[in-house]
Design a protein that fits this description.
Layout lengths: L13 E7 L2 H10 L50 E10 L9 E16 L2 E14 L2 E13 L20 E5 L3 H10 L10 H7 L9 H16 L3 E8 L9 E7 L5 E7 L5 E9 L3
Antiparallel strand pairs: 1-3, 2-5, 2-7, 3-4, 4-5, 6-8, 7-10, 8-9, 9-10
Helix pairs in contact: 1-2
Length: about 280
Amino acid sequence: MGAEPDYGKWIGSRETAEDEVTPISVAGMIATLDRDDPPPQPGDPLPALWHWMYFAPRARASEIGPDGHPSRGGFMPPVPLPRCMFAGGRLAFPAPLRVGDHARREGEVVEIAPKTGRSGRLVFVTVRYRTFGQAGLAVEEVQDIVYREAEAAAQVPAREAADLSDMTWRREIRPDPVLLFRYSALTFNGHRIHYDHPYVTKVEGYPGLIVHGPLIATLLADLARDGGGRPLARFAFRAHRPLFDTAPFTVAGRPTPDGTGANLIAVDPDGAAAMTAEAEYGEG
């Protein structure tokens, strides 16, 4: 593979998208996450991270790449590395989006950093989003996206088992193909690693379908929200290794000593940390 493209002209790249926070999509997420929440009503606040159902690129079929994602080179830079992962993010929720809102999201590429790691060539892309509901700014978000080489995609370094003995909340998740398909449908995510078993095993070299990073983060945020009984004001997460549909995994958490937030973790079947997160509670 040749030299890295000149990414300079993509720094500051911007896009704006609009969407509706519809009751039907919120009801779909309630069902997909196996929650017993009441049917959504106009004006209900949208839980933290559920805004990821909205603003997805609506690329035409002819504009889709071989992995199921829209072809690169529009808003996102044309990174030549074939594998893509949602590596982490930091979010703040100044005010809730609400069911029925006409919402707008503004995005900007703020950093592109080519690097070389133990797994080969990497390109980190940092994107900042601001989402507005009818009451004003609702979500401030920074996403970390990493691109990597094909031959390194399935190489995941071993980690020590996480200690869950002091966790207050714990839930076992069974990530079957139906869960992954329904989440892909709700978020309009065509990435084949989440639903195409022959592709993800034979082309990308993984042992099974990959659980969406945003889905894992959403499960952790919901665990904190349910455990603390309050909405979230801030949430930050980091992905460490993938989870697959081949076995159940665990999400767990505990309140911080001062009760103002929560520490959270998702662990794989071997007990290794797949994602860690921190939440801060708001009022309510």
